[in-house]
Amino acid sequence: xVGVVANQRNRAVGQAVEGPGARDRLLWAGRQLFxxxxxxxxxxxxxxxxxxxxxxIFQQEFVSREVLLMAIYxxxxxxxxxxxxxxxxxxxMEDCPTAERVRLLFxxxxxxxxxxxxxxxxxxxxxLGVSREVDKHLATWRAMWIDFLTSEAExxxxxxxAVASDHTVTVTVLNHSVDELMAxxxxxxxxxxxxxxxxxxxxxxxxMILPS
Length: 212
What we know:
- With 212 residues, the protein is mainly α.
- It has two domains: 2-61, Arc Repressor Mutant, subunit A (Orthogonal Bundle), CATH 1.10.10; 69-209, Tetracycline Repressor, domain 2 (Orthogonal Bundle).
- 74% of the residues lie in helices and 0% in strands.
- Helix 2 (22-37) crosses helix 3 (44-51), helix 5 (65-88) packs antiparallel against helix 6 and helix 8 (132-158) crosses helix 9 (167-187).
């Protein structure tokens, strides 16, 4: 009887449903509400109402708002990294000059991560300063990007287009600049468009990696 009453209550409150698709609906709700109202001002109950998912299903899927936030970040970060990797694997890229290669890399990345302005705001603005756990999670992704971009700098050295040095430090600084610019876009997507971001990220990268 208790189960019947609970099911009736779930259907009555926003027609909440369980089963396949609940995780995707919660991710969608997180993108919507975190972007519109901010992570700090969005409750689990509001997320569940938006997604039409019972609270206990939210707890099974994500445990907490923080875990949902990191899952949204992972979606955006993975999409961007794959876009950049695919761009570098395109025909002719192996022999492409570093300046052009870097532009194509950032063009692919920026287009991917800014495709959904709500997801971009969550991934580059709402994740900031949430907790030590979220900061550690972001640091793991930054380390991956530092390795990825350092390999590009070392490729430029092998081609004689850059000076041999410890590019890890340079790329670490560059990575923080990327974060700042993406956060700037997340806050003001209409003022800071994708084309400007690509131009600025390319300019900064080449200024740091290639000799003047």
